[in-house]
Amino acid sequence: FETVCLHLNLIEGDYFGLEFQSHHRKMVSLYKVCVYPGPKHTVLRFVVKFFPPDHSLLLEELTRYLFALQVRQDLASGRLTCSDASASLLVSHIIQSEIGDFEETQCRQHLLNTNYIPDQMALMDKIMEFHHKHIGQTPAESDYRLLEVASRLEMYGIRLHPAKDREGTKLSLAVAHGGVLVFQGHNRINNFNWSKIRKLSFKRRRFLIKLRQNVNQDTLEFLMASRDCCKMFWKVCVEYHAFFRLFEEPRPKPKPVLFSRGSSFRFRTINIKGICLRPVLMIFICACLSFSEVTCALVNGHAEDCRGATPSPLISPMLNDTGAIRTDDEEDNRRKNCPTDNAYCIAKELLCTERTYLKDLELITVSFQGVLDKEDCVPEALKTLLSSTYEPLHSHHTHFLQELEERLSLWEGPCSTEVKGEMQRIGDLLLKSAQELKALSGQLQMISECVFALERACVASRRLECVCREFELQKVCYIPLNVFLLSPLHRLLHYRQILDRLCKHYPPTHTDYSDCRAALDDVCELEAALRPGLEQIENYQKLLELQKDLIGVEHLAVAGRQLIRLGCLSKLSGKGLQQRMFFLFNDVLLYSTRGITSANQFTVHRQLPLHGMTIRESEDEWGVPHSFTLMVQQQSLVVAACSESEMEKWMEDLKMAVDMAEECNGLTADLLSASKDVRASEVVESEDDLCGSRTSLPRNGNNSGNTLNRGNTTAHVCWHRNTSVSMLDFSIAIENQLSGNLLRKFKNSNGWQKLWVVFTNFTLFFYKTHEDEYPLASLPLLGYSVTHAGESENIHKDHVFKLHFKSHIYYFRTESEYFFER
């Protein structure tokens, strides 16, 4: 099997398997390397083994192509039964992939020569009608649409195993991602979800399904043709359950000394969660997955190497992908053809970040407003406010991005000296944009009001609050929604930095200098007018984010309260040091109970007023490294930081907060809720617990009904990395957002993979290309260190930097010295 994957250059090989035909003319899966009693000249077939419920989980186009081939085979053999309309639509996508756009004579002749389904002649006109609608669809898109249609069919991926019930009625059993299915003919008559099944077993020819006690009938019995058939179906069930449901491999049981009972079969391949969370290689999933799932994969795991360096002999259009793995020679040659001067690199940074910024605006103007338009609970005033604020900004930046792309394209291309001098500049575009932004200053000033208005509406409507929370859990909303709302204000800070760099790079005599200087003055003027409001709304946004992360507090986001620092400290108690989350404001210090609830929230245990608090180092007193004592109202609290630098940061900010508390007259109130409806059983004690079934893929359909919160917020990252951040750190992070291409080195080879990367909110978000709608994975960087790659690490490439946290190391390579320094 590994040889086949290597030959195909297949990364997502875990969905596939090998099978052969036995003496009894039954297809048997090849489970392990051993000698099977089979025909002398056995033919092994490469087939799809596991059919995921969502075809979008297949991220490699080669994988989708192979799945499409399996669908074609199932259609032709009659295994995938469906209505005539569905069959016609499926075949139309197949021939669009095979012969391209519709041309009546060619299409008819192709259908006469090639048989895709039984009784194809009767459906030829319907197939051609559907094919005519696919004009312009690429082969890769056709495969995607084919799987989209096929995955909705009841018989998609179903492999029937003949059986009988206790009364002797002929039935068929099958297994799917959701459980064990029972068919009569091709009609499904029963479905046993994995959550209802207590145990699967077989005894001779009898296949037994033991259900959980709350179901009326405890054990179901089916009679199969032979013991071998029974055992084969049992193995298939074990594999499917492990692949789709077993997210943590159980510890092996100790072997008996004398006798053993039962089958020795164990399914040890990677499961679907492992595929989805395979770090940074190709199979990335983030967004609605919890922080622990994505982070555990990225921090505790490393990417596997590409299966082979040789190109695949399989000719398929989806292999010509912009996000594919490049060889070093290809990448180096491409880089040599691009300009390398700083002005071009600054312009390229502007282009890359503008692409990301426009995507963020589209999330508000298209995705979020589209969701609000469908809801009756949204006030019309809020809809009008959002559209009148963000749509003019979106229109402006769409036009600006088009101009930037055209200018950079001419800058990179060959042209005469006169044309080069005119086109190798962006100051004129920036000046024009800055002047238009000044005209849009009214919209920029209304952004703060949009955040306030949305929060007021959510407080007034429980339904709207749920809508916003569900939207935040979608893949496209990779950072908190309010951060997207504030992105136009953040963008001004980046324009100022870009223009400042250009003005420092150009001599005053340069043709582009005067435009850059004038644009910088306009942007600085606009920024100065908006900065006081930005500081206020940034603090308010962080308070709102914390309000969602915390249980047991009320009225956290009020006027006058400022966040100073949040992070992890260890509290000294009779049981020793116990990890806690601390939240420092200008009037109060809050700290949590141990762990995180099942809704990804922290439960606040206690509040300490800052008025009259004293802080002193106590390492010598308690013998605990990096510890200090907080004294307030004749009570003391001993806490310890993870390092001396962390202790110094906390003590400095605490002393500053105590001074600020003296000036806050009457702000502190009892923030703790009167009732804490949090059961102890809901609290998760460690990050390892977060990787269990609670945070795994949904087991019973959509989770939208649950009050699940984002699991990748800054507070969660601080908890898992045992670190802290201050409000100053947030301000610095806003000014250091970045987008662009990075090459990531594989762990055990010299191969590099090109990725589109967005750095924001202390996190690297990885995409295949800049056109992707949502990130495929994320790597929170709090706690990581960044250094140069040393000579001893045998990486003989320029512009390589290393990210490392404990024993976890990643190497990234930039396209130029400029981007390396950035």
Report on the architecture of this protein.
Residues 342-533 form the DH domain. It is a peripheral membrane protein. Pfam families: FERM_C (PF09380), FERM_M (PF00373), PH (PF00169), RhoGEF (PF00621). It is found in: Cell membrane; Cell projection, Dendrite; Cell projection, Dendritic spine; Cell projection, Filopodium. Residues 562-659, 735-822 form the PH domain. The chain is of the alpha+beta class. Among the domains are: 1-45, no CATH class; 51-154, Acyl-CoA Binding Protein (Up-down Bundle), CATH 1.20.80; 161-244, PH-domain like; 341-546, Dbl homology (DH) domain (Dbl Homology Domain, Chain A, Up-down Bundle), CATH 1.20.900.10; 553-677, PH-domain like. 41% of the residues lie in helices and 18% in strands. It is built from 25 helices and 26 strands. Strands 11, 12, 13, 14, 15, 16, 17, 18 and 19 form a nine-stranded mixed beta sheet that branches. A seven-stranded antiparallel beta sheet has the order 23-22-21-20-26-25-24. Strand 20 (738-745) and strand 21 (752-760) form a beta hairpin. Helix 12 packs antiparallel against helix 14 (427-439). Mean pLDDT is 80; it is low at 32-36, 277-327 and 675-707.
